[in-house]
Structure formats: structure tokens, C-alpha cells
DNA sequence: CGACCGTTTGATACCGGTATCATAAGCATA
DNA sequence: TATGCTTATGATACCGGTATCAAACGGTCG
């Protein structure tokens, strides 16, 4: 049975014998309404199965109820966790989430996003790393007048709009854990150049090494790009060194999986011959053999916080005040770390 | 510099010295327009940076330009691939994608979705497995009058609205591959009860076994639920059998990873002692050691097809005609299969 | 020259809500 | 009874687009 067309506020008004405005008052829970009238209108609404038209509402109110999610993120799990976290917050509101992935590296990327923002004029947008590090994008949001929140690995220079984790400290802790276990030659697989998260993780490594009084050896630090294959290439380079590192920290789980992969190929036992730590705590980390010690950052929690920040009006397009929300990542100890041999 | 408010069609009309309707004609590329007028209006539009308000448009046209994506899917990679595929199609249109994950098992799930559909009245929705198998949901879409497309493992009984893969044949092929490699005792880890995909994959297994003239042994078939841990439990059961199966087909990669995990724990070599095949070709499949032989189904392609089907008006809410779009899954041979020993 | 025709444009109503402001009703007070 | 105040409701305009239909215009033809 198809209802040929939805009832409108006019139908409700006519049937209930009141004006549109009164119905509007009922919908919006205006306090200055006679109880009887309200009840009568509510009955008619329930009767007809009336649902207000969000487009009309948006037009009249000169604002809409869309929250955008902009990302160029290759990590599916992370994107989905973010969506989940945001939707938990949006669920009981009238807001809807509209996703807008973009092509990293496309020369028209900013223009594309600009078009999206101009067209939809979303109430606010959430921007995921790595594109959240792009200051031009933030400027664009401000210019167009769309409130925004950036998720990242550090507060950048835009604290009012940041929801950030403390990658640096977390990595510091992870490396310290390796050092406590007796490791002295610890390889580092970097994230891609130009990524703040990669930078933060590197700093965490360097701080931990220095604080322990160990030498910072360039040969132990290898470039990667957050992808599995780059983890493999990095591992080949690291495991060719003599003496070999006894542990490797990879800047994300995927690369850590690549390192593990190569270690396997070479007949090394993990963790006896080589300890490995990753970052992100994606599902792959717990599914690998051995299960991967890694750093978990509270993505869903951060996403919820970001959504709340957007809705609460903090992080308005131009606000200069407000603090970054900071979240703590924690080391998840599994079976890929053992005391250093010898 | 924030533009305090966006120019409207009235501003354009006033400045260009024409009526609203003429501007509207320019926007909608109406053919019956004088070239000069068009040019003049276009200049003003460019000048002001005018962008039509989608809400007002939606209201006037009594339709909107939203495509919903409904899913209760735990597989992040798959959801993201679908989003990507759909957005490729939507990119050059005026449609926007709005995602609506739901909680599988929540008793209010259908009501939630109904509310979503009533409120937003999206132009169309795409429904992912496993919830795409829910006929009540399809009926709900039809009742509300929202066109829909269901993605699934078989055409179900709703061909006009289906975009389906051929899981049964694909699994048949995978098992045949094992049999050709000399395997005779092949374990099967089922997907969760009540899932069409699980059913189809089981049928594919059974057909292949029977066609090869092998006996169908109940003990070789173990229940799973598509999660890693259930793969582990299933593997424990299977590897306790005497004689042990020499190969296992798991109904998805995650469970295959669980099987591999347990095989490792027991000191079995994969693939020498045990061959394993998964299903889905998620990234984990290629990252495991050894890389997993698995079945790849063309998710992004299917998603594109589904989006086109929605936009093209096929699969209207009540259409009885139209064919299911069928897509071929293929076996990706990696290193987790070896000839049966002995 | 006037009737007729096709092309181009505009006046106005309308989509389904909300905001403004006026008005009606109820009641206390003078 | 008249006055003023509060509370409940409605008439109307408006948000920014599109649709309908009429009108203006220029040219052709009898």
C-alpha cells in the first residue's frame, strides 16, 4: 500500500481545526499552548502519521540539519569507527550525516570541497586526518562560514577546532616499553612525509630514545607510507642491517603487518627474534599471529566528542577561543613483544 | 572574510534585470532561452558566486537529491568500498550520499529505519547485506514509496531490486580448486545461521563435493558467525578430527584468519599441512602469512551498478519488472593452498 | 495592414514550513 | 462597566526555488 502523498502541516491544521502556526507550535514544543489544543493536534498528527518536511523546515529556518564528514582516509576501519561515533551522538537529534570522501592528491580537491560546502551549507563538518592537517581547508570552511572540527594527532595551531590524540606520548610509552624489555636497537618505520601524525610518532620515538640515553641511529629510521608494502620494504632494509635491530616500531598496524610478513619470510621468530609494535589497533592487529602489541587511540570517543563540539556551537567557523579536546592513547600489550635476546 | 549571507535567485534576477523564472531557466539549462539573456545571467551568477539552494529546490520540486545507504555491516572495508563505488557515480550528479547504519538485532531497528525514510524521503536507498536480506525492510521501502536496491548473494525473490553476486558458483569453484589439488577431506566453516550469503556459500560447497563424487560428511561442517573468534573455535573443532581435514574453506576471510591462527598455535604449517581458502578478499587476506587464497567479489563495481540502477529509475519502489544485476566473483590464488599431502 | 504564429519572458501562485505581529479571550483591578 | 494585562491563537508574509499560464515581441502571410 503506497500512500500516494505525505500529509503536510496544512492537512493537520485543517483537520484539527487550527492554524498552521499552532501545529508548528506543537511540533516545536512551544510552551505557550493550551493543553487541550495541543492534545487535539497531537492526536491528528499521530492519526495521519504526519512527519514534518525537513527541507521546508531548513528553508524557513535558513539553516539545515546536515553534518558533513570529509575525509581522504584509506583506513576503512577508522572511517567507520568515526561514523559510528558521530552517529551515536546524532541519533537522537534531527541531524543527518552526509559523507564526502575526497581524492587525496587530486588538484581540484579543495575546489570540490568548496563546491560541496557552498551547495549543501552543512551545519558543520568533521574533517579526518590526514586531510584535517590541511590549513587551507580549514580556512575555506571559515571563509564559507561552516563550522568545522578537525581530528588529528596534535592540536596544530587551531585549538578551538581540534579534537586530538596524543600520538607523541603514546609512542614514547611504546618505545619505553621496548627499552624496559631490554631492547637497544629499535627500528622505526616512519609514516609518509608531510603527515603530522607521522611527525608526532617520530618525535615520540626520538624522545624516548634520547631520554633513555641511547644513541639515535639514522640507519634505524626508515621511510614508509602507512601501507603494507612499505612496511615490507622497510623491514627488508632494517633486517639487512648488521647488527640487526631486535625490535621494530611501525607507525601503523598495516606497516607492522608488513614487517611481520618479511620477518616470517626470513624465518625469524616473532617475538623471540624480533619484537614488533604497531599503531592504531585495527582489527588486523589482533588477528595476526602473533597478535600485535599496538597503540589504541580512542577513535569513536574522539568522534563523539567532535560531534558534540560541532552541535554545541563550540568550534563555530570563526571562534578564536575554546580549547582542543585531547584524548589519551594507550598501549595494548599482546604477544609481539618479548625481552631482547642476549 | 566571511560572506555574511549567500546570494539568492532574487539577487541574481534583480541585478541581471530579469525575472526569477529566467534565472531558473538558466540554471536548469532550459533550451528556450535567448543566447544574450543567458549570457548576461550567467555572468551575474559567476559574479555573485551564486549557488542554488538545494533545500528550496527540493521543496519546490517535491523531491530531493539524497541517496541513503543503509547497512548493519560489520565489515568496514566492504562498507567503504560501497561508499566509494556509489560516490563515483554520484560525484557528477547533484545527489548526496547520506549514510544510515543501524544496529543489527535492535528491536526498534525497522522502526528506526522507517522514521529515517519518512523524515528524509530520500530519492532512493541502497541496502547492504546482511540486512538487505530482510524482506520486511524491502516491504517498508515499497510502502513508504522510496525506491531501493538490495545488494546480496543471490537475487532473492526480488530481482528488480537486486544487485547480486554469485557466491554459490564462486564457492563451487574454490572447492573444486581444492579437490583438483588432491584434497578429499575439506572442512567448511559456515556463516551465521539465517544469512543468505552463508546459505549460498554452503550450497556451493555441497554442490562441489557432490559433483566430485565425494561423501558429504557432517563432521566437516562447522557453524561460524563471520567473526574471527568463531573461526578459531571452528578450527579447533575441525583440527581435532581424526583423520584431520587437509583443507578448510571458511565462509569469510576473518574466519579464515581465525583458522590460520589456530593452525599456527598447533604448530601446523600452512599450506603444507593445511590449505585454507577464505571469502571476500579483504585487505587482511593479502596481509596474512601466508597470503590467503580467497574469493573476490566486485563490491565497488556492484555499488556503482546499484547507484546507477537507483538513479536510472529502475528499481522504482513498486516495479515488478527489471532484472537482477548479477556479478561474477573470482578466485584469487595466493599461497594458502598446496596440493594435499600423501 | 491586421490576423496568426512561434519564440522569449514575466507575473503570480505554490511547495511546506517558520516568524512577526495583531487580535481575541479571560481575568483582575479600579 | 471600563481598563489594562496576560495568555492563546490566527492572518499574513516570507524563505528560495519551480510551474503555470499569459503577454510581449518579431516575423510571415493573405
TrEMBL record, chains A, B:
GO MF assignments: DNA-binding transcription factor activity; transcription cis-regulatory region binding
SMART domains linked: HTH_LACI
Every HTH lacI-type domain range: 7-61
Gene3D superfamilies referenced in this protein's UniProt entry, alphabetically: 3.40.50.2300, lambda repressor-like DNA-binding domains
Cross-referenced InterPro entries: HTH_LacI, LacI/GalR-like_sensor, Lambda_DNA-bd_dom_sf, Peripla_BP_I
Keyword entries, A-Z: DNA-binding, Transcription, Transcription regulation
Domain of life of the native organism: Bacteria
UniProt xrefs under SUPFAM superfamilies: lambda repressor-like DNA-binding domains (SSF47413), Periplasmic binding protein-like I (SSF53822)
Record-given protein name: LacI family DNA-binding transcriptional regulator
Organism listed in the record: Sphingomonas gei
